[in-house]
């Protein structure tokens, strides 16, 4: 699954640690999502969508 | 050429240090100093119990009581660990699960193989008794933890 998390974070000038704190997860989790080594759970994806005020499908794209 | 190699090694070393620092910070965030302190207490009680049991202390009931002495301290440590797992985020929990999924089957296979080898040719209990072999289980868990953490870095 691809995602635009790094771009969205950079637009707001947040560090990975800033974003992790806002989402209540570790920085390692943010890094793993950004590098596409880990796909977040649905609740976390929805939280990310709410934080960036975008629907989940605009942030996360399912690839074949 | 040599300079770039040195720079590469330095960069890799810095990454290892950063990851180690992060692991320490993560453990601190989840457990504070509790896990370490209770773990050290358990190991200390275990070492004392083992030392006492290696002497000719009597009677037998006292020896059994000494052998069981580390158990409540281990349960206390285990309870701390399990409480910490509940406080972890979803990736941290997955890493714990992958560490255990790595360690548990290998421990089973090793114990099974040791059992069979013991039937094939009696093993020297000074080298292969349960009092030595149990230590491979936490070692395997930490190997699994290291492996799982690397996967998500």
Q: How many beta strands in the DSSP annotation of chain A?
A: 2
Low-confidence stretches of chain B: none
Please outline the major beta sheet of chain A: 2 strands, antiparallel
Helix content of chain B: over 70%
User: Fraction of residues of chain A in helices?
Assistant: 55-70%
Q: How much strand of chain A?
A: 5-15%
Number of domains of chain A: 1
Tally of helical segments of chain A: 5
Kindly state the number of beta strands of chain B. Answer: 0
Q: Termini distance of chain A?
A: 8 Å
Q: What is the CATH architecture descriptor of chain A?
A: Orthogonal Bundle
Return the average pLDDT of chain A rounded to an integer: 93
Uncertain segments of chain A:
none
What would your notes on this structure say?
The complex is a heterodimer of chains A (64) and B (153). Helix content of chain A is 58%, strand content 6%. Chain A is mainly alpha-helical. Chain A has one domain (2-53): Orthogonal Bundle (434 Repressor (Amino-terminal Domain)), CATH 1.10.260. Chain A starts with a strand and ends with a strand. The mean pLDDT of chain A is 93. With 153 residues, chain B is mainly alpha-helical. Chain B has a domain at 89-153. Chain B has helices spanning 2-31, 34-53, 60-68, 70-87, 90-120, 125-128, 130-133, 136-151. The mean pLDDT of chain B is 87.
């Amino acid at each position: 699954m691809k995602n635009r998390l790094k771009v969205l974070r950079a637009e707001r000038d947040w560090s990975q640690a800033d974003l992790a704190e806002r989402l209540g997860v570790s920085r390692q989790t943010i890094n793993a999502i950004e590098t596409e080594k880990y796909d977040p759970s649905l609740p976390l994806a929805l939280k990310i969508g709410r934080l960036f005020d975008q629907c989940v499908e605009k942030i996360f794209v399912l690839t074949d | 050429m040599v300079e770039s190699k040195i720079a590469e090694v330095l960069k890799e070393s810095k990454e290892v240090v950063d990851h180690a620092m992060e692991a320490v910070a993560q453990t601190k965030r989840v457990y504070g100093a509790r896990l370490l302190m209770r773990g050290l207490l358990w190991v200390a009680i275990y070492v004392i119990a083992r030392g006492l049991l290696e002497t000719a202390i009597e009677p037998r009931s006292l020896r059994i009581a000494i052998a069981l002495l580390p158990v409540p301290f281990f349960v206390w440590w285990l309870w701390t660990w399990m409480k910490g797992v509940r406080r972890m985020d979803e990736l941290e929990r997955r890493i714990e699960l992958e560490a255990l999924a790595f360690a548990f089957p290998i421990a089973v296979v090793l114990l099974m193989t040791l059992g069979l080898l013991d039937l094939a040719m009696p093993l020297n209990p000074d080298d292969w008794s349960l009092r030595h072999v149990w230590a491979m289980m936490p070692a395997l868990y930490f190997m699994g933890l290291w492996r799982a953490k690397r996967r998500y870095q």
